[in-house]
Amino acid sequence: MKTMRKISMALVACLLLATPIFGQNQTGVSIRFLNGLSTESLTDAQLRTPEWESELFRIPYRELSLPQTAKSRMLRIFHQGGNPQPAPLCDVILPEQGSDFIVILVPGKDGPKAAILNSKAPGFRPGDIYMHNASEHTIALALGTTREVLKPAQGKAIRPGTPADASNYEVAVLYDDKGTAKPLVLTKWPLNDRLRGYVFFIPGKHNRPLYRAVQEFVPQSQPEP
Fold this sequence. Notes:
By secondary structure, this protein is mainly beta. Strand 8 (100-106) and strand 9 form a beta hairpin. Strands 2, 3, 4, 6 and 7 form a five-stranded antiparallel beta sheet that branches. The chain is built from one helix and 17 strands. The protein has one helix spanning 2-18, and strands spanning 29-35, 42-49, 52-53, 57-59, 68-70, 74-79, 87-93, 100-106, 113-118, 129-133, 139-143, 146-150, 155-158, 168-177, 180-190, 195-202, 210-217.
């Protein structure tokens, strides 16, 4: 009887040790950042929780940052910006599923906000383009044969529609200006199934949005379930 009780207590102890406590910090979550707020890098950014803060790191605007390991899925980005003390920039709340994320800082109505992507999601493949509309205009897109419409504050991963032997595809971007569709982009983009793109539309001058595009090389790997 005593032996059975000892075994039961040992099993309970193992289960308690193996079960994560709700709200505890989580390790092993990797985040890469992209600055869509300006055409300058944020050279002194920092991630914080009430119990932890990261080293200062750089958030570039032309490419993704180096991976940052987060201690929690609920974070706040701080930026010093020449001030004596870092000031809060925006909050980042990561989904429960996934361990590798991309965070794009974009303008919002109430200040900067974080557009969050699961880097290894099956729906975001090499050759896809993530487009985020941070402007006040509705954006209509034609990527090859693919047609999409992005409302303000909406983002989506889009796969260009192309023939199997295509090396590039036509791109047309229109924006709604008080009921009139006006052209923003009419061009061709090269087709490369080892690249992923990030395009975001931001407010510009004279009631015309601006756009910026960034690419990353994606090695062949298995997506997360």
